[in-house]
Every structure is written in C-alpha cells, then in structure tokens.
Amino acid sequence: MVQRYGPEVTGGSESLARGVAERLASDTRVTVFTTCARDYVTWRNEFAPGTERLGGVDVARFPVEEERDLTSFNRLSADIFARPASEEEELRWLRSQGPHAPRLVEVLEERKEEFAAILFFTYLYAPTYWGLKVAPERSILVPTAHDEPPLRLSIYQSVFAAPRAFAFCSLPEKQIVEGRFPLAKRPSEVAGIGIEVPEAPDVEGFRIRHDVRGPYVLYAGRIDAGKGCGEMLDHYGRYRRDRRGGAQLLLIGKLAMEPPRVPGVRYVGYVSEAEKMAAMAGARAILCPSLYESLSIVLLEGFALGTPALVNGRSAVLRDHAVRSRAALHYASAEEFVEALDLLVAEDRLRRAMGDNGTRYVREHYRWDVVMAKYRGLIAAVAGGSTTTGSP
To answer: The pTM is what?
Structure first.
C-alpha cells in the first residue's frame, strides 16, 4: 500500500514502492492498493478509480473523499505540535492531513486472505494507520521516517507496534525510529533503494535546449521552504555576493513557493527524467538542503552519475551519506555553505575524486539485486516462507 502510485508520480517513498513492486512482479503476483490522487498537497482525484495493469503490477485505485485544505491543515498542525493533544485531536489531524480514502482500507480487509504479505510504504498517512490494523502479523512497514514533529504524536505508537517486520531506507532512519519506538526483536533490514542511471546522459543537449552557459549547481525536487529551499536560496545569495561570477543555481521540479528572485538563480521548471539526469550529470554539484530525509534518491542519483554534492549537515541521513561516501561536503551555517560551494565549483581535481567516490558508493550499496534480496527475505519471514503473493 502506498498513498500515490505511477510513473507520473514523483516522491521518494512512491518511487521506492514502484521500484520494489515492479521487481517483485517478476516472479510474484503483486497488487498495489493506492488512491486516485496524483498530488499530495490537495489529494485531488486525478486517476480513474478501479484496477489497471502497470509494469506487471495490478494497481487498484480508490477515490479520496476529501481534498486537503493546506492552509487550515497547517494551522491545525501548528496547534497539535505545540502541545500535548488527545487521541481524538490527533486522529482529526490525521484525517485532515489525508488522504482520506476509507474504501481502500475496506477492500484490503475484504481481500486480505489473498496476500501472503502486505507492505506499507510511509508511516505518516491515514491509509497506513488504518491499514496496518487489517493483518499486522503479515505486514511489513517501510516507514520512510524523518526526525519530524508528526513522529512524536502518540497515534504513531500503534503504527510502529503493529507490523511484523520493517524495511528502512538508511541506518540513521532506523536509529531515529528505534529511539522513539520499541521494535523488540521483530525482523528488520536497512534495505535502501536501487539506483539506476543512464550511461551517457545528454549533457550538451540539456545545455542547448535550456540555454545554460557556464558552470552551474543544481537543486532537483520539490521547490518548497519545507525542503530547506528558503535557507538554501539565502545561503546561495551570500555565495553570489562573496564570489562574484560564481556558478549559477538551476532549480528543476515543481515550484511550491514564491518564485525565487535571487541573482544567479534560474527556475528551469519540471523536466523529464532523462532531462533531469542530463542536468545532474552536467552540474558542478547537487544541492540537498532538506533537514528531513530518510534516504535522498536525488543525492544517490547524482553520486551514480559522478556528481558530488553539498548537503545540509543537520540532517543525520545526509551527513551519514556524506561521511561514508566521501562524495559530499556538508554545512551547518551560511559561512560553511559558501566555502564548501566555492570548493566544489572551483576545484576540478577535488570534484573528480569525490565523483569517483560517489560512483563507487552507489555501486557497492545501492544495487537493486542487493535491495530486493532484503525485501524478499522480509516477505518470507512474515509469510512463513511463501512469497506467491504480495501487496505493497
């Protein structure tokens, strides 16, 4: 089960769910339970309800009954996170967060005996909260958790108490969860994700198509203050003031904040996957400013393409990647951001060495064969050795 699904859907947990589902489908019957939403901000129904076949997977979509009002939800969140709240208040917050798709859970209950194992991607949303109650003894939770305010709500005690097993994206994520919830001796794996990139991205074509001249650094993903983009733009503005003629900053992805008005920053827009890969391969560095990461697929894709990164050192996950890979620098202040970015842009030898380190890091730790062996082991553990069916 996952809140959104399909090749048109962007998002870390959604990409992970699709990657796992399609690879399991090579020898296992897989059904994905999901919603008709494409956009997690509003949960507006954009896909048709019913079942379709995608990538060898049966995808069962259910309508969301209430669109999210982000303004009122943010107001409610500020209140709930600021004080101890009752279970009733927290459940009202959960419903307001969405997606509210009760029929999804009802059908899972009706069909639960069809499935040897049920995988839930992302701890945060209502379908996981209610769905885990259906068959906890055969459930695997893939939390994709961050050290964020919702993780401290009491309703999530039952979410982490329910599943038979866990698959984590990174060791820091597992440590965050273990520090908050007793996992006891239930099976768990740090499974990660498999990373695949093209061998020869069309960097020159990207530059020509978008009239990109000179060196650039890149941010790829949702452009949102909640992703650390506001602070990143402030830090970059200081870099441009201190380093005249420095690299420009390209932003690709969905714009979810006011358009940036910082000299040297250019919003390219939403681009295809192939175009994103070309942009990443041609960058001097990938910028990863988010505090809240359980893995960071973009960072690993950049590494696989030989592009080093500059990451927010206050994120335990990003800092762990930087230290273990030796393919990224991390910062905790504007001054450190400016110094590190200047090094990555100006020092070709350093950048090449870090790029080689990143490629090696992904090759050793983020191959799909390694990842899927861990998922299959967890499925066998909860299914009593049977892996004839599965339901992410």
So the answer is: 0.84
